[in-house]
Amino acid sequence: MYYDLPAEELATYRGSTSAPEDLDRFWADTLDQARAHPLVVEVTPFPSGLRTVEVYDVVFPGFAGDPIRAWLRLPARSIRGDGPLPGVVQFVGYGGGRGDAHESLFWASAGFAHLQMDTRGQGAGWSTGTTPDAAGSAGPQVPGVMTRGVLDPQTYYYRRLITDAVRAVEAMRSLAGRGLAPVDPDRVAVLGMSQGGGLALAAAALYPEVAAVVALVPFLSDFPRALTVTDAYPYREITDFLSMQRGTAQQVMQTLRYFDVVNLVPRASAPALFAVGLMDTTTPPSTVYAAYNTYAGPKELSVWPFNQHEAGGSQDELAALAFLRKQFGEG
Hints:
Layout: H1 7-10, H2 23-35, E1 42-46, E2 53-61, E3 67-75, H3 77-80, E4 85-91, H4 106-109, E5 113-117, H5 157-177, E6 183-193, H6 195-206, E7 212-216, H7 223-229, H8 235-244, H9 249-257, H10 261-264, E8 272-277, H11 285-294, E9 299-304, H12 314-327
Helix pairs in contact: 2-5, 5-6
């Protein structure tokens, strides 16, 4: 799969979906309902055994006030000094959770306050998680979460998860005012790869206080095209569902319009770094370009012609570090 569209078309492709008329009201109501639950953030020191990084077990209220877990990792006090730290909130790829306390040390080691959100109802695919999805299935579903509650935007799984992502950023920014961590609330970025990249874009679109975005091979983008150009999971969960739940396609596609990042990112303004692999069958290149080309804020794109879903791998990580240091004046 080398270019699912010609290069000249990728450069201008803006997706095959459109936003529902009540998109803004839907998300305003959803977030208002979540914010009706006080933002009480529990931060408990965790004995990780590490000397250069401090780890804290965090619980904050997500969708419907559900308790969402996260790890907070900070450079050790002997290393970080007294000034407030730039922060990064990281979202995890499909099937994964926040993992173990001693994993994912890159950002704290680089001098950032790092909040890694657990993913409700996931965390048994390739990294561990501990946060349940309390809402249940709300109807038939294919194994996985892509079709959980998909017949109605109000019950769809990603309504809950995207809300959790926004609340995670709010939780991170709140730590500074409560003296719980040396976080600069005006320098908090969001980042992720695949599903995590889609969540980062959604959070930036729905929460203007996000200061920067890193979205590597973002998932949840241009659903109509993804469902017809790739046979890979997780998108295939939706086509499997439609092959058995005949007659629901219009209803399902209407639901997905509320969660498609192509419809959300015209509302985003934070500087963003994207990455795409042109041989990627998991998030086809055209779907990444659709998100990139419709993203409203300043943006950069790293293109990896001969890579699949790993895109630039560790080089993307270093590029993200350089990008965020530049945005935050870290030198």
